[in-house]
Predict the structure.
Amino acid sequence: MAPLKVMVGVKRVIDFAVKVRVAPGGLGVQSEGVKHSLNPFCEIALEQGVRMKEGGEASEVIAVSVGPPQNQDALRSALALGADRAVLLRSGPGAPVGPREASLALGALVRKLQPDLVLLGKQAIDDDCNQTGQLLAAILDWPQGTFISQLRVAGEEVEVEREVDGGLERLRLRLPAVLTTDLRLNEPRYATLPNIMKAKKKPLEVLEMSEVGVPPHPPPA
Ligand code: AMP
């Protein structure tokens, strides 16, 4: 099979090292003025895509994010770590993007970008939901491999090892497929200064929800 077009979903979250505080009003956490980073499991997903490109198994790695304009920071980090291009699907202010909105929006991006493989983190460390990959696979009616700790491309299929309660499970999935990454899949690289500079020139496209046929988020009042 020809090298795969790989789409990687990346989420911008409060940095794992920040001590999270309750926001005034008590209904959420303080996110203003707090350091944000790429969700660590998304870094692992991205690293896998980049390694596949370096190994000739992928033709292109596209980092995508659904959220407010600030998510462009996360996408620039993804570009510095080796993604070829990035797409932000913009949501409106003041409405967190949960797994439901993220998976519907990622499904619309899949229809637009036509990847052979979607790699997501197993969970986002802000909401710890662990739902988006499973929902996306259901929306697309694609095979899913969750919590993967090994990945091998085998023709029209991928072979994955996944971490389950009883140990390790091996699966073969037909492509296209959705995979979510566990901690032991790889150890992500750090972005080098030259790559951070080069990332500023890589393409980052911003799309509105209406351009991919998804209802606006938040819904109009
Ligand atoms: P969750 O289901 O919220 O724990 O997120 C699991 C994974 O889904 C993350 O590691 C990302 O790869 C992907 N994901 C979740 N939300 C978004 C988003 N807003 N934009 C892009 N990818 C996302």
